[in-house]
Amino acid sequence: MIRAERHIAANERKDEFLAMLGHELRNPLAPIHNAVQVLQMHGEEATTRVWALGVLGRQVRHMTRLVDDLLDIARIGIGIEPEMLPHVFATLAQAERSRDRSRGGLGLGLALVKGLVELHGGEVSVASDGPERGSEFSFWLELNESN
Q1: Bridge partners, 44 (sequence order)
Q2: Is 82-140 CATH 1.20.1250.20?
Q3: Can you give the pTM of this predicted structure?
């Protein structure tokens, strides 16, 4: 029952994140649209072109970061094959994925997490009921009461 409640809570957090991300993706569109309109009306002026290119560049970089975040979230909670569980924290470890790498990364992220947590005297673990069943990552750090 606890696992089902966690799954529901995780889905709610994911839905909230996706709603926020959708809103954030729309925000850069207004300045991009305005810059294009200004270029269409006054594009012959050098200062206008410099201004518009600056706006377009900043907003496209912002949207790229947001889309990268969206792609990252699309790869979450997918599940892990039982035989892969002992290896997920190994450097360059990756589960089976499609040829287009849409679900794959470099295989460094979880190894880095494990290393950082252990450097701080902690532990990290993973649990999954298998593909399409989600994954649960946990870590523990020692509380330093001297501060």
Answers
A1: none
A2: no
A3: 0.44
